[in-house]
Amino acid sequence: MELSSLKTQVGKWLQGGPEGDIVVSSRVRLARNIRGYPFVSRASEQQIGGLEELLRETVLESGLDRELSYFRLDEMPGLEVEFLMERHLISRDHAEADWVRGVAFSAEEDVSMMVNEEDHLRMQVMTGGLNLHTAWEEVDRLDDHMASEVPYAFSPRYGYLTACPTNVGTGMRASAMLHVPALVLRQAMDRVLQVVHENGLALRGLFGEGTQGAADLYQLSNQVTLGISEEEVIKKVTRVAKEVADMERSTRETLMEKHEDELQDRIHRAWSLLVEACRLSSEESLHFLSHVRLGVELGLTPEVTLDKLNGLILLTLPAHLQTMEGREVDSLERNKLRARYIRERLGPVGA
Amino acid sequence: MDEAEVICDACGEERAVIHLTEVVEGEPIQKHLCQNCYEHQENVPQLSTSNVFSELVQAVAPELKELSAKTCPECGTNYLEFRQTMKLGCPHDYEVFADALDQLLERIHGSTEHVGKMPARRRGAGDLTAQERQTRIEVLERQMQKAVDEEDFERAAELRDRLQGLKENGTE
Question: Which tens digit of pLDDT belongs to each residue from A51-100?
């Protein structure tokens, strides 16, 4: 697979699903380590190389029923590594590490296996909409296959042993990406956080801890991995994601009842800027795309589909624009490229 | 009585600024001292912050010393080093630091025992050792009892089925 072939399309997981009006995607990730080796931070160069070879061969040649392409991150240009990170195929930590490491992923980009991240192996499955159960079943199956080939570091008492004790036990993180523009507009995120914390879950911005949700996107996920089974976590995150989605829906209704004019104005302004502007920063475009996405949901901007907007959120990120351009481009020029790209996709010709 | 009116018990002249309660033969006795008498009086506990701190350090020092001496023989990671980075060095650390880790895990997860899935059986490899299986059975039994105590019967039933599988076929 050539990375450049991905640059103008998006993975299956960005194309909608159950509760897709609010829940953009679901993801289940498992952390695993191989018995007999130290964790990556303590491993020698030779051990890291050995692990990479072992896991690469197992992923590619052990008869896994998913066809995966493998890339060595330490042998790739930085721009391509960033490109994979923007696509959520690798984590930020994996992108920024400086040792021998790789990633294998499927053409549909629903499956990704990171080799030598903080843990030896991190497997994830992503699905569109709120569909954690399907993602869990798929990653569970992949995990069983890997376990039949390589010995995992497992303790009958502590479960799957991980480099950081915050992951020990199931090694599982289940998360749902939620688009909640109405709750943000009404400044009601404190209420959401309360519900999230009461259930022992965490809420982070799109780009990780501490960030305010760019494009009003937030990731809801479990924190506890010990003393609770995978199924229970999947059920809990699903239930809370639905609860937050209901809060967002009723807030949208209130906004439409009481502030329809203002809402119309905001959404149409966002739309006009997206299709007319000559320069758009990443921050601006995410903000406007979020408002237009809300407009689609409320039937106010019928010119565009959710799929297309989900795609644009990803395709207009810095490394994507530069990959499309085939070279490194500074931020001022990127803002021009971004505006042109969005105009072409949303404007009269592209629509 | 207004605090400003309290006169030092020792000199009977200065305004008292230190108010102590001593317990003598089960009876609380109030003592009021001025700054000067307090500093010069014997048999009065000195409450400077540096004293409190050094006492605290002395109290936990043996524990700190013991913990800092704990180093994993397999990967060389020291416990204090781990607490600075929160990254363990190798799977073996979980055994070496078990006592201290249990407290930490309890704080992070509210539990110290895994109830989720177990690795699928490896091709060509044997089942769990008898000891591993026994540990696993004990863990699940404790968790089942906890679920019953919490009246979470759905969870208890699920754990019961898994226990049965583990006892009969060696898989959950």
Answer: 999 999 999 988 788 899 999 999 999 999 999 999 999 999 999 999 99
Nearest to B91 among A35, A149, A231 (CB): A35
Which chain B residues have a beta carbon less than 8 Å from that of A228?
A: 109, 111, 115-116
A163 and A278 part of one domain: no
Whether residues A49 and A180 fall in one domain: yes
Question: Count of domains in chain A?
Answer: 2
Cβ-based neighbour number of residue B51 at 10 Å: 11
Quote the domain boundaries for residue A313: 260-350
Q: What is the mean pLDDT of residues A217-222?
A: 95
Name the residue among B110, B116, B155 with its Cβ closest to that of A170.
B116
- Residue after which a domain boundary falls, among A201, A225, A252: A252
Task: Kindly provide the ipTM of the predicted complex, given to two decimals.
Answer: 0.86
Closest chain B C-alpha to A237 CA, distance in angstroms: 16
**CB A41 to CB B135 under 8 A?**
no
Query: What CATH number does the domain containing A66 carry?
Result: 3.30.590.10
| Residue of chain A nearest B91, judged by CA positions | A161
Bridging pattern class, strands A23-32 and A121-128:
antiparallel
User: Are A191 and A300 contained in the same domain?
Assistant: no
Q: CB of A70 within 8 A of CB of A56?
A: yes
